Amino acid sequence: MNSEPPPDVAAEPAPPSDGEVIHSSPAFTAYTFQWPQPGTLTLFSDGQIQFVCVDPQKSAAFNCSDIQLANFAKSGSGSAIFTVNDGTKYQFVFAHFNGRLFAGILALLKTIRESLVWQEVLAQHLPPEKVKKGSVGKYVLKVTVILSIILAPFVGLAFKLKEADKPRTEAIAAYRLGVTHEQEQHFEQALADYQRAAELKPDFYEARLNVGAMLGKLNRPKEALDAFNQARSIRADDPKLHQNLGVILSMQGRLTEAEAALDECIRLGGDAAAWYRRGLLKQMRSGWKDALPDFEEAARRQPQEAEYVFYCALALGNLERQAEALTLLDRAIQLRPRDARLHYFRAVALWYLKRPDEATMAINTALEIDPTYEDALAQRARMRGQGGAR
Questions:
Q1: φ and ψ at residue 220, rounded to 5 degrees
Q2: Assigned domain for 297 exists
Q3: What's the whole-number mean pLDDT along residues 106-135?
Q4: pLDDT tens by residue, 248-283
């Protein structure tokens, strides 16, 4: 018998203490928080912070959407400015050591109105006997002065870090904008965004890699090669970099260097696309026999990619292994049934295997999909001339 209680009666976990880590991952760390209101404070790996109160009304009062960024995920300290709905601003100063978060609150007491707001907040955390007329205001001033003295180094450090980190933050924003433009296939705009990110943060490897990729898409291979070489000066062990180098070098007709780049990509753990691209280069340089093992490896690694399966079939057909080619063409057609090219090569294989009726059906299917397919039209004419296609 299972002695564990059913899920609906599971014991509620004890609430964590103030400053205790309740979640930790590479993406973010979350702490409990009790002041100015009970809630959770989350530190994200890119330096962003978020404070969410348990009471939704309190969360609305402390407008978390207007938090300024501070880099304390790496530095161990930082600050953020919360804006209350009435326009009052408070600066939170944080420091965390040995896995626990310590926070001080420095009110920007510039007006009586702000002081009154802080009286309401602070009164909730004072013993009842201390909350007397006029006493809270004194506590506000005392706490402000004490925290100003104790936490001044952290405040200064936070603002220095914020200023130093500004280019990084802007670079990340530009990079993300570039990703959006690239997804929309606005490659010129994406290129400008990635270039901006690389200017703001010269060691931003991903930005420089994407600069090269966009230049390649825009058919500017010489500039793309320069961009990839700049990326390589930052990080030389990325398989994707060497794959891109192989593509760009092949665009320039530098096939030996391109194959060497793809060899390095594969040595570093490149994916199916690297094997496929090296197969294309080998076919151009030395023929289908040398290319076939790379196409087969690409198809083995990514069996649902019709193009890899098709090139295996194409290599086998050119090596006069038509029966094996036909099996792979049937598989590729299952993956991509509306590709006229696949039906055309299936017709060719069937014709060589002396199966004219099936070849006729295949060539007609290819032309139904693409009536202007010149190779298919020529093949049907040849078949008709030999008494095959109708």
A1: -125, 70
A2: no
A3: 41
A4: 999 999 999 999 999 999 999 999 999 999 999 999
Q: Are residues 152 and 199 located together in one domain of the fold?
A: no
Q: Same domain, yes or no, for 240 and 147?
A: no
Give residues with Cβ within 8 angstroms of 29, minimum separation 6. Answer: 21, 23, 42, 43, 73
The residues that bridge with 39 in the sheet, in sequence order, are: 33, 53
Residue 22 pLDDT > 50:
no
- Whether 345 has a pLDDT exceeding 90, the answer reads yes
| Structural domain range at position 95 | 14-164
Q: Best-predicted range by mean pLDDT among 153-157, 356-360, 384-388?
A: 356-360
Number of structural domains (the chain) is 2
Quick check: is 336 in a domain? no
Q: Which residues contact 148 (CB under 8 A, 6 or more apart)?
A: 106, 155
Whether residue 70 is found in the same domain as residue 154: yes
Q: What is the mean pLDDT of the chain?
A: 74
Tell me the per-residue pLDDT of 193-234, one tens digit each, with 9 for 90 and over.
999 999 999 999 999 999 999 999 999 999 999 999 999 999
Asked if residue 100 and residue 64 are part of one domain, the reply reads yes
297/203 Cα distance (integer angstroms): 35
Residue 171 in any domain: the answer is no
Alpha-carbon distance of 2 to 37, in angstroms, equals: 41
Query: Do residue 197 and residue 142 come from a single domain?
Result: no
User: How many other CB atoms sit within 10 Å of the CB of residue 148?
Assistant: 14
Q: With both helix axes pointing from N to C terminus, report the angle between 135-183 and 112-123 in degrees, rounded to the nearest 10.
A: 100
